[in-house]
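Dear Dr. H.,

I hope your travels went smoothly. While you were away I took the liberty of generating a structure for the chain from your last submission, since the lab meeting agenda had it listed for discussion. I wanted you to have the full record in hand beforehand rather than looking at slides cold. The sequence, exactly as received, is reproduced here:
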Amino acid sequence: MRFCMVTTFYPPYHFGGDAVFLYRLTEALAERGHAVDVIHSVDAYRLQHPAEPEVAFSHHPNVTRHLIQTNKPMLSALAAHQLGRPAVYGRKVRDLLAKGQYDVIHYHNISLMGGPGVLRYGRALKLYTSHEYWLICPTHVLFTFNREACVERKCIRCTLHSRRPLQFWRYTGWVERCLREVDHLITPSRFALEQLRAQGVKCPMQALPYFVPIPPAASEAKELQKNGRPYFLFVGRLEKLKGVQDLIPLFSGYREADLIIVGNGDYAPQLRAQAEGLDHVRFLGAVHPSAIGELYRGAIALLAPSLCYETFGLIAAEAFAHGAPVIARRIGALAEVVEQSGGGYLFDTIEECREKMELLRTEPGLRATLGARGRRAVEENWT
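The corresponding predicted structure, in token form, is as follows:
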């Protein structure tokens, strides 16, 4: 079969877990003999990261990437953002979708690839995976005023607070009209599906969780130390909504283990300043997904202190696949994933987080039991 993935970000031009999942999906389809094209925006990546990506990715021979880029990336991406249509990218995207003669067109993060208008392009079975809350939230993440999870819609004020231009097409029914072109909408969790339904999204919908690769059983055993010290692990984009700023004060009074932080993001300078003087809090920056496995296997547990409604919890599933327990804040789909797995603990306060950390640090047998449950849950649900 011939597949086409339409997305804003795709490795190596990406920032988050949804692009990594799409990369895995694309590679898996290609490995099974399918032809997969990927149309993605380099312009959107350049807006936040003018330099080349730090981490390189290989691509299967059955995968063809079509990089959308112009000599004026800001204006081109802004036009798509403001018009809710591909705008400058329209002719190229339309031609690619027409010439490809695809069996399936699968849309992903389309915010700066053409907004809802790009859903009208092409003729094939159309799927749309909602990796974020972009359909119902102008800032994508339901995180009000960059402070707390959204419980009351204040979209215009919140958008202005985030210093983003208003998208007036959101208030014209344009999203609803474009969604009629989609045969099926997919969310990574029941929680995300319920959020979309609660905000009035009406189209055929199904919760279909992400999958993660399972490492060989022989690689499971690993000493729980890094440079001679036991450690807890955080993996993710360094933004305020990920909650790492709550972990650093915890570790200022917790010296029994290190905190290793993997990832980059706009909030990294503030976090590094907050951790100044804490030698046992270490920032590794960007790490290729294939290299993170060793860190998972060596960690006492993965810490997931997100303050926002995650749509799934891909990092938690990855940790489970490597036999690492997860200690996560009780919010959004992260709670759904941890509860379903039985492979970790949920917390409501940072003190509860500390208690669970110390429990796993001092009881390696419990750590092994939870890790085994998590891996079993991945094998049964997320492969």
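Two observations you may find useful: The first helix runs from residue 17 to 31. The two ends are 21 Å apart (CA to CA).

With kind regards,
E. W.
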